[in-house]
Design goal:
It is built from ten helices and ten strands. The protein is an alpha/beta fold. This is Long-chain-fatty-acid--CoA ligase.
Length: about 220
């Protein structure tokens, strides 16, 4: 969907030696790697461990966009070790394989992809992946999908609190909300209005090596 934005830049990207990979139906200009064709042609047999196992867990696993807290958004290096550590995120906040996690955060940020999707893989939980957050449909989605855990960025909770009151707002299975940036006044309003949902506030940075968890509420 975003290839049209990149296409005018292809000549300069080629000059700088930047590879462009696209997931989706082509055709694409020369020099652009169509990943879907490669995936369709790939063998389902797992390669030997020495092919895919990193030599050093501190080597770069991927680059991910920061949210711009310390300046403009930029690509930050994430090591294999940090990626593996993200597998335990939901376990640390009290979720389990029985949970259904609602995730509407962008996957080009660490919170959505590594903590969210990878965190679900780490505990074997079900992930309800939403393309776009809708405050007006949130509780209907939770009921329809059997959601028990909600991963937020603080503003999402404010959007929910600012919605007009509706019948059935407290008839849901949500037991845990986890995320960052929830203001104390919104925190109180959220629990008073939507019921005794446990909230675990966390704080970390893509480039940092320390994460804080508010277990006590």
């Amino acid at each position: 969907d975003l290839f049209g934005s990149v296409e005018p830049l292809l000549p300069s990207l080629r000059e700088d030696g930047v590879a462009v990979w696209v997931l989706g139906a082509g055709p694409y200009p020369p020099g652009v790697a169509a990943l879907q064709e490669l995936l369709d042609a790939a063998s389902e047999e797992l390669e030997p461990e020495d092919v895919w196992e990193p030599e050093d867990m501190n080597d770069t696993c991927l680059y991910i966009f920061t949210s711009g807290t310390t300046g403009l958004p930029k690509a930050a290096r994430v090591s294999h070790l940090k990626s593996v550590m993200c597998l335990s995120f939901y376990e640390l906040v009290g979720a389990s394989s029985r949970d259904v996690v609602y995730l509407a955060l962008p996957l080009y940020h660490m919170a959505g992809s590594l903590l969210g999707v990878l965190g679900c893989l780490g505990i074997g939980a079900t992930c309800v992946l939403k393309e776009k957050f809708s405050a007006s449909r949130f509780w209907d989605d939770c009921r329809a999908e059997g959601v028990t855990v909600f991963q937020y960025i603080g503003e999402l909770c404010r959007y929910l609190v600012n919605q007009p009151q509706r019948p059935g707002e407290r008839q849901h299975g949500l037991r845990l909300a986890v995320g960052s940036g929830l203001r104390p006044d919104v925190w109180r309003s959220f629990q008073q209005r939507f019921g005794p949902v446990r909230i675990v506030e966390t704080y970390g940075m893509s480039e940092g090596n320390v994460t804080l968890f508010n277990y006590t509420g």
